[in-house]
Amino acid sequence: MTNRMTLAASEVRVDDHIYNGTGTNAHPTFAWETVTEVRPEDGLILLITGNKKGVHGEFWLEADEQIVVMRYPK
Length: 74
What we know:
Blueprint: E1 3-8, E2 17-19, E3 32-41, E4 44-50, E5 56-62, E6 66-71
Antiparallel strand pairs: 1-6, 2-3, 2-6, 3-4, 4-5
């Protein structure tokens, strides 16, 4: 079972899924991307999705900024 939750960016984990879509009316599975790396950079949190060495997405957030993630139980 999947859990969809709102967290501070500093609480996001590798293998969480974040939404990178066109808005709330888009298809719910349209653009959920898997976080492959999380690291602090200059007081911000950098979330990387996709291939770390090739094409990937970067999301720069304040540590306390809220973000919706889907997390699968381990």
